Amino acid sequence: MELLMQGVVLMVIGMATVFAFLVLLIIAMNSSSAFFSKFAHLFPEEEVKAAPAGGTDPTAEIAVALAAIRAKRG
Amino acid sequence: MELLMQGVVLMVIGMATVFAFLVLLIIAMNSSSAFFSKFAHLFPEEEVKAAPAGGTDPTAEIAVALAAIRAKRG
Amino acid sequence: MELLMQGVVLMVIGMATVFAFLVLLIIAMNSSSAFFSKFAHLFPEEEVKAAPAGGTDPTAEIAVALAAIRAKRG
Amino acid sequence: MKKFITMGLLAVAILGGATSVQAEEVCTVADGVKTEKKISIADGFKKLGRETGIYRFFNPPTKEEKVVAYQAALKKTVEAEISAGHFHGAYEQIHKAHGIDESTLELLKLQVQAAEKKGYEPPLQLPEGLGQFIMILVGLGLIYLAIAKGFEPLLLLPIGFGAILTNIPMAGISAGPMPGQPAGFLYYFYTIGVESGVFPLLIFMGVGAMTDFGPLLANPKTALLGAAAQFGIFIALLGAMACGGMFSMQDAAAIGIIGGADGPTAIFLASRLSPNLLGAIAVAAYSYMALVPIIQPPIMRLLTTKEERAIEMKQLRHVSKTEKIVFPLLVLVLCLLLLPSATPLIGMLMLGNLMKESCVVDRLSDTAQNSLINIVTIMLGLAVGSKLAADKFLNIQTIGILVLGLAAFIIGTAAGLLLAKLMNKICKDKVNPLIGSAGVSAVPMAARVANKVGLEANPQNFLLMHAMGPNVAGVIGSAVAAGVLLALVG
Amino acid sequence: MKKFITMGLLAVAILGGATSVQAEEVCTVADGVKTEKKISIADGFKKLGRETGIYRFFNPPTKEEKVVAYQAALKKTVEAEISAGHFHGAYEQIHKAHGIDESTLELLKLQVQAAEKKGYEPPLQLPEGLGQFIMILVGLGLIYLAIAKGFEPLLLLPIGFGAILTNIPMAGISAGPMPGQPAGFLYYFYTIGVESGVFPLLIFMGVGAMTDFGPLLANPKTALLGAAAQFGIFIALLGAMACGGMFSMQDAAAIGIIGGADGPTAIFLASRLSPNLLGAIAVAAYSYMALVPIIQPPIMRLLTTKEERAIEMKQLRHVSKTEKIVFPLLVLVLCLLLLPSATPLIGMLMLGNLMKESCVVDRLSDTAQNSLINIVTIMLGLAVGSKLAADKFLNIQTIGILVLGLAAFIIGTAAGLLLAKLMNKICKDKVNPLIGSAGVSAVPMAARVANKVGLEANPQNFLLMHAMGPNVAGVIGSAVAAGVLLALVG
Amino acid sequence: MKKFITMGLLAVAILGGATSVQAEEVCTVADGVKTEKKISIADGFKKLGRETGIYRFFNPPTKEEKVVAYQAALKKTVEAEISAGHFHGAYEQIHKAHGIDESTLELLKLQVQAAEKKGYEPPLQLPEGLGQFIMILVGLGLIYLAIAKGFEPLLLLPIGFGAILTNIPMAGISAGPMPGQPAGFLYYFYTIGVESGVFPLLIFMGVGAMTDFGPLLANPKTALLGAAAQFGIFIALLGAMACGGMFSMQDAAAIGIIGGADGPTAIFLASRLSPNLLGAIAVAAYSYMALVPIIQPPIMRLLTTKEERAIEMKQLRHVSKTEKIVFPLLVLVLCLLLLPSATPLIGMLMLGNLMKESCVVDRLSDTAQNSLINIVTIMLGLAVGSKLAADKFLNIQTIGILVLGLAAFIIGTAAGLLLAKLMNKICKDKVNPLIGSAGVSAVPMAARVANKVGLEANPQNFLLMHAMGPNVAGVIGSAVAAGVLLALVG
Ligand code: NA
Ligand code: NA
Ligand code: NA
């Protein structure tokens, strides 16, 4: 019986925490959505996509380099 | 010389076991073949192929889901 | 100060070794280049490419085998 | 508790020179360690509160807290070794301990000596050979379900195969090492990959890299449905506790997580709380996930009217790339502030998702979704199968696990549906209650089931994308529940 | 045996207080452990019989059997440490032992003390630096063969590179750890991947996922050819035993397995029976596999007439998907019933094949055939190369291994051919004897060779698919042979 | 040195029975071990000379040398444990030692006892919680740089994420094991992958498989530019030594290697010489590699005239396949003859390149360039991030590391440019000095920067392929520098 009570305790704490976490997450998501729609002009969709240009994958880089070399040679 | 005898012993046991194993396997394969040709109607080739439908790869599933979402949005 | 002297010692030894290594490498590269251009006829570009034929990837091999089987069956 | 004091006193008595000071110390140590067992709701929240990131940024653990934690871990381990009859292992743990005062170690040694004197009587079991034979049939059965019935084959096929390999007599494929001989190879897969938590976490990273949280971001309130569906976890836990001492609190928590309908979370939690039940729990979790299309529809039809099922939801808004990139970091920060014990799971899920959404590390994201997750899946499946030893599976507990797991799925489904109906009473934007059932996770099967049942009621009703919201929220929800359980009973 | 008793008595004498009871114990322990050394055929079959799954389902190992096995393992390890001059390691093994009565441990300690007193004289060897220099040349030679001659480059290139890295003076790339310093990285590859058996088994899984057992299922009797070709294994074993004490029984068994013409099986068995010879054995196995197109044709032409080589075989029947799915499970069940010691190898091969044939876990099967097998191949190759240390390779034994390995290939080929000719005398469906030579495995090279030689005799004679039957049966056959050797001399 | 003798004498005094013989032994041991600390240039070259492969082929290490090396390692480790306050760990190291005479061990024990008596005072630090909070912000900052600014995202995103996970209070994601509990999963990634050296070496293999040494082979003399650019390494080292005792010689060497502009080399060396600084060093190395397009151009413009920048170089000759295959073996042989301590790095780089160029193991080469390097990159990044603990990062040393690292990049760039100008004075074939700056490595970014700046001065001036020569030579150069540092201060 005491064991069962422990189970009830875990259930109350657990469900409360799960709901609390997800409610806070909803608030955070709504805030994030509000923020980014308000400042959408600061985060153009393109900017993000353009970012990797600086630090791309070395393979690709080297491939480009080699292509250039071959082009010159050929 | 005693060592050599041990080698002979290993050879006899080893080859006997290898042959025994593969003879049993032949019997099993023949039985399996007989069984499945007798009950071929129970194991249509399609059934097996259709099976994975139930528990497919999550990626594919999600891809489908996303495609649907995009389709609706677009 | 003594510590700094140790740093200088490391720098002298380090840079000397780096240069020595790369100078030797340059010599080795030049020798290799001279050797292979002198004996270019012994190392036709094709030979190297043909080499793997002997010990190819088992997958490819098996694929070939299976293709043959299927071809015969079909 | 009583048992421990008795044992301690006995041990003290044996050595003869027992003084009352020593006896008091026994109680003190015992109290320091065992008081956690009886918790009230207030205590529980207080304990959780003391383990939040927010609290700990201001109050880092003191040296004393660290020593107490170390002592508690040592004591628990020694007791576990004793209750399994591994007296040598118990001594070894004591021998390896460090940074603890001698008297504590001395008391632990007394405890082992007393237990050793009493001897160890293993529980009644099936004859070993018979048990192995049956477990091999179980393994073949799992493989049959995986191949012929399509039950989560990616996991159940390796698990079934692992079960067969483990139970082969004399082969020792998951046996520990002998002097000068290596352990069986499944032993390495288990200890290196599962006991350490590495395999389930890598899988979770791959899942994160495959998951799109867009539908959740487009309709945040559906996250509540993913919370409600975790109710099944705690009802199953309660059920396990009600089984008259068949399951410890740890066992009950590990069983409950089956209701999370999420494989890696279940394996991660079970490997920490109840490794002996890991095999049965993983098998139950994946089997019921595969059975979602059979389990859920009747409940959905029972608890909703046709009109409710026919509700069409308004189209989801577009979610910007930036929101999607920020989301995983948002979840991680929330989790580390509130529930650090869930951060290994949530963190790896969100790492995978960040790799995917950021688009700057596509090659890593691809690998996480493909070769890495595949390699780990093979090894994880075999390792989980290696826990399907006869003495761990062929007992009444497994039946309890199967029953409780099914109950957890059913209750989780119902809770999701009912909360959705309640939300419809309160909010103006109508929610189709069917998407509530997707809150149990079982990604993406549960969302597909919701879509299918919705189409039956209204052929124009495409719920898939709407159901993905609660579906992925359910993954977060059960990771949070796992974090709570780890913090309170781990 | 005699040596051990002498040593035990000596040890007992040293301590002075030797009683006849103790002396008797020495013998008892010795008997319990060493009687396995002289086996008759009947004993061998009896021993194998006691290790079948069928027997053990009814008679699981008793506690006494387990203790005896543990003692035997401990004793063997201690003796190995002594004979390598690692007295400290021997004490460590004894120190770590548990669950054994003190007197046994005491006797082992006496044995170490006696050996320590006598001192250890390392065998005569090349000067270390010279040996390393030569081994680096050997490594370069292997790389040359791999690249310029196309000798199994997937394995021989990494093995050769590993040999170079291992033999670099002062670099310690495969040296064990020092206090506060990590071991060399190849040390980790070897201990984690090869000593544990994990790498060869993962490779075998990948091989299984690449193998089609259809041709064998279509013509089961060709499996006999795959059995006959294992004759080479045992003849080479016999040859090694005849080398006047140069090789122990374990060494001989590990050398014999070269005749299995199967890399992972050879590495797995050698890592268990004779790790010191692992490098040479792996190099011999892969080299001869690469040389199959040169070794086999003369034997084939010698033992067959042109008419025989021109025999066209009747077309193979269609094999249903279900048969192919059931086959790996069938083999596994047969193996676990009859020869559990072969189940790690057979099990992983069949897991790979089941993943392929079941078609429900294609992503796992793809990974097993590609990224996983490739990653493991690189690491396995380097780890095997790390066993090519000068003192292990530059000795007369390596020449023995190379000669015996070649003999094994030749005899295996001949045995396959001859059995095929015999079958033609008995059966009505004619078999082209050339496919018998494919029974040595070396998949799929041997089958291609059979096809090629067949085409020379008859341009319409496509033997490839027929030869695949004995070819894959040979893989099973050598795994079975490995299982027998593990059970009897492991 | 003085400290040690004092301590030893103290310890001897404590035990009371100190004889002068023992005191002398203290000095002897101390001398044997610590004399390495003060080296002259001649001594240094002599030491390097004794560690070349050429010397060691003729003079393999004697038994005495091995014992001295073992003792030195043991002593260093014990002292490190003492200075970190881990007295228990120090005893454990002594306990595990073997093959050493008792008196040495006894002296080490005395040393630990003396230190234990004195007690350990941890250095002043930020409050733990605050430190963790700040480090989480640092982690978020790294992720921001990776995603929004594109700073080496393949490494900085996982490193940043690892930094966050590590600093979550109570989660213990990179904490060591407790009794009966597994360690945090990042602890395993670090110990198994980074401490062992395996991850950086596997990355280096992948880099080798992606690298084309053709441009270097076509114009060998550009290798000198790759040598000159390593000057930055040693200037930064010198700077660190000049920081008034803030950095030990090991620390200084690890910091200098940032100037190598090569991630795996920096991580490998730092994990061996200065694990405490590993996080900061890796972050600095990757950040500056990402900043190469900003750091280098001003220096390039400052040190060259427009005419020099406009120099067009003559087209590179064709390099035959055979030369390319032989090259990696040539480098490896040169390295093992001259500098065995660099062979783990150079060896794995060249293995990758050989796999690529030989064209016989394409499937291994593909895997090394893709799934393997990706898997390892994820785990390495997280593991490096796990070293970004507050007490290791939030201190004055990190600022020193950032400043010195930047200086190393600048000086390396300048040195490369200046040597190129010098070469133009001497050789007839003109070299565009811009390609000298590519000698710092940072492959292939630095070569691209050289190309871009060259195009600005002369739109017909395609320098990319010419810059790849010094660029890849720089990788070899910094691995050689790492080898020298390992041999002299490791
Ligand atoms: Na869930
Ligand atoms: Na074979
Ligand atoms: Na560099």
Verbal overview:
The complex is a heterohexamer, with three copies of chain A (74 residues) and three copies of chain D (490 residues). Chain A is mainly α and 74 residues long. Chain A has a domain at 1-41. Chain A is 80% helix and 0% strand. Chain A has three helices and no strands. Chain A has helices at 2-38, 45-50, 58-73. The longest helix of chain A has 37 residues, at 2-38. Chain D has 490 residues and is mainly alpha-helical. In chain D, 72% of the residues lie in helices and 0% in strands. Chain D is built from 26 helices and no strands. Chain D has helices at 2-15, 20-34, 41-50, 53-58, 63-83, 87-96, 102-118, 128-148, 153-166, 185-195, 198-210, 214-218, 223-228, 231-241, 249-256, 263-273, 278-303, 306-310, 321-338, 343-358, 362-369, 371-385, 390-393, 396-426, 445-457, 464-489. In chain D, helix 11 (198-210) crosses helix 21, helix 14 packs antiparallel against helix 15 and helix 17 runs parallel beside helix 24. The model of chain D is unreliable at 1-36 (pLDDT under 50). Chains B and E meet through helix 1 and helix 2 of B and helix 3, helix 13, helix 14, helix 15 and helix 19 of E. The complex binds sodium ion (3 copies). One sodium ion (NA) binds next to helix 26 of chain E. One sodium ion is lined by residues 260-262, 440-441, 474-475, 477-478 of chain F.
